[in-house]
């Protein structure tokens, strides 16, 4: 069950980092209530997103979370730099957090 949830959460990044506490709270709330992950997993994912994504991309991710994930997911609309950040998060950080891998 955790794999589809991590993929779903990571997918929301694709459309999407003002690292403000409001953005963190929005992402944490979405992760826990809408995705159904444990608080520790959500904190790990939020920390990883904040570390991996630049401020603008993190803010986009938070906006998606605020809208309940109701955003179009599109990689082609992002710059190469943004795509690199997104893939780094999806393939490195998300699995580490969702599966407890170090």
UniProtKB/TrEMBL annotation:
Entry-linked PROSITE patterns: PROKAR_LIPOPROTEIN (PS51257)
Domain of life: Bacteria
Protein name listed in UniProt: Lipoprotein
Taxonomic source organism: Henriciella barbarensis
């Amino acid at each position: 069950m955790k794999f589809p949830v991590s993929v779903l959460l990571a997918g929301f990044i694709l459309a999407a980092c003002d690292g403000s506490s409001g953005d963190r709270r929005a992402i944490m709330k979405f992760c826990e209530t809408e995705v159904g992950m444990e608080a520790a997993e959500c904190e790990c994912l939020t920390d990883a997103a904040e570390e991996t994504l630049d401020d603008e991309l993190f803010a986009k991710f938070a906006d998606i979370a605020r809208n309940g994930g109701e955003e179009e997911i599109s990689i082609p609309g992002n710059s190469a730099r943004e795509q690199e950040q997104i893939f780094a998060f999806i393939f490195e950080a998300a699995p580490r957090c969702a599966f407890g891998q170090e």
